[in-house]
Amino acid sequence: MADIIDGKKSAAVVTDAVSEAAGSLHHEAGLQPGLAVVIVGNDPASHAYVGAKSRMAKKCGFNSMQYTLPEETTQDELEQLVEKLNADPSVHGILVQLPLPGHLQSEPVIQSIRPEKDVDGLHIVNAGKLATGDLASGLISCTPAGAMLLLRDRLGADLSGLNAVVIGRSNLFGKPMGQLLLAANATVTMAHSRTKDLPAVCRQADILVAAVGRAQMVRKDWVKPGATVIDVGINRIDAPEKGEGGTRLVGDVAFDECADVASAITPVPGGVGPMTIAMLMANTVIAAYRCVGRPIPKF
Ligand code: GUN
Fold this sequence. Notes:
- By secondary structure, the protein is of the alpha/beta class.
- It contains 10 helices and 11 strands.
- Strand 9 (235-238) and strand 10 form a beta hairpin.
- The longest helix has 23 residues, at 7-29.
- It starts with a strand and ends in an 8-residue tail after the last helix.
- Guanine binds next to strand 4 and helix 6.
- Residues 141-289 form the Tetrahydrofolate dehydrogenase/cyclohydrolase NAD(P)-binding domain.
- Residues 5-120 form the Tetrahydrofolate dehydrogenase/cyclohydrolase catalytic domain.
- NADP(+) binds at residues 168-170, 234.
């Protein structure tokens, strides 16, 4: 049976350090980190994530601002709000929750956020810094940064000689995850829906990272014995055992059977999810420190 990687515990270590860093910034420079989270529309899962982000920001001692916009918000209205937040000196981090409702284009909105406030790490300046190996001066996408922290705790900072396979090639996760693994010296394969014989590719992986958005797609025979498995999926499935209409959350990995083969595995919930929120807090406090020219805390 694999070790179960406790994301809640690792996230608490990060958020404790963030709270301390925020406290000393307040005390010594009179600055309170400010995080603005913007959500458009009524998607219940997005509202749950945003609520958790806002609560954690408060807990870390930040000025936590949540902007809840109606479904019928126009592109112009959303971009005007981003402009206002860009210009507001009390806001150090801006996050626009994705996905946006279908009538809105997310890319122009993301690219209109000032890179120094882009705590999601999605602006081309931040994505470009990561892609060119500058991990120090930009902001790194929260979920891959959190997944890397879990891997570092388990395998160390240097992944030389290890094969890593990332399933999924999104801008939000797969691409930055691949870059971070590469920067840590892993040999990286980016797999996706058009990859030929995906199970065989995955079986080569010492580190297998799944971010496909399909419930329990990764099966036992995809996992190399002794591999470290990071499950980034959050999928809600029917759970008739919980009574009529019951549901539960599962990842992209069939947990029970893969845990028989892997040496370590992240659960869903309680694995990567809490790390995403923790790294968002870390990015916000980093952005605030940079604002006053202070050396940034390390997480
Ligand atoms: N939706 C799901 N995950 C994320 C995330 O990390 N950032 C944003 N902005 N939206 C998301």
